[in-house]
Specification:
The chain is 72% helix and 0% strand. It has 224 residues and is mainly alpha-helical. It has two domains: 18-86, Arc Repressor Mutant, subunit A; 88-224, Tetracycline Repressor, domain 2 (Orthogonal Bundle). Helix 7 packs antiparallel against helix 11.
Length: 224
């Protein structure tokens, strides 16, 4: 009798397997690996759905208002599924905040190497600041004030963003497409402060046109 996990002699796939390796390949182990991979993919999908639902709910109601039950229902999962991925509400807020910060970094991380690198980056920063489903900035900063972990992540993301902005600034200056008398480090923090201000003004209904603002800033930075 063949062992249930062995490769049958009549199995066509066994003909292509060298004899030295045939006995080392266990279909049972392969099935377990496939099942494990599917389980991990399902877990990642559930986590993503919960974060997306929370981000949408927080953008509409703020960080403190939506209940966990409402967030879970919006994602299509139970509270039990929630606790598989997050210890508590604060941990969910941290995950949502990382998504928020990721958008900021995405806007500055992949700048092109054209002479207009810095000006393209300004436009992406303005777009990130005015995304409709952003978490309300005041709520986010309030949460960062209550959590050292979140505060450190926020400051870390800002430092990383400032480094990318510095790189883009230096590239544009080296290619003589931008004023050379601008300090890259100071400009980086100015742009981050402007991005924060744009988002705060948008939240109170100010008539912000991010594209025109970005164009104006680019004009001011252009080499005379």
């Amino acid at each position: 009798m063949n062992h249930p996990d062995s490769v049958p002699d009549s199995d066509p796939s066994a003909e292509s397997i060298p004899q030295s390796n045939a006995h080392s390949i266990q279909p049972g182990s392969q099935r377990r690996r496939r099942l494990g991979a599917r389980r991990e993919a399902a877990k990642a999908e559930t986590r993503e759905a919960l974060i997306s639902a929370a981000m949408a709910a927080f953008s509409e109601e703020g960080l403190d208002n939506p209940s966990l039950d409402a967030i879970c229902a919006r994602a299509g999962y139970t509270r039990g599924a929630f606790y598989v991925h997050f210890k508590d509400r604060e941990e969910l807020i941290q995950a949502v905040s990382e998504r928020f910060l990721g958008r900021l970094l995405e806007g500055v991380r992949h700048y092109d190497e054209s002479p207009a690198a810095m000006f393209n980056l300004v436009g992406r920063l303005m777009d990130a600041a005015t995304a409709q489903d952003n978490v309300p900035l005041q709520q986010f900063l309030h949460a960062a004030g209550r959590s050292e972990v979140l505060q450190e992540r926020y400051l870390g993301a800002l430092r990383t963003a400032s480094e990318h902005i510095c790189d883009a600034t230096q590239l544009s200056q080296a290619r003589a497409s931008m004023r050379g008398d601008v300090d890259p480090g100071q400009l980086a923090w100015l742009l981050l402060a402007l991005t924060t201000g744009v988002q705060a003004l948008r939240e109170v209904g100010a008539p912000i046109d991010s594209r025109r603002m970005g164009d104006l800033l680019s004009y001011l930075l252009q080499r005379a």
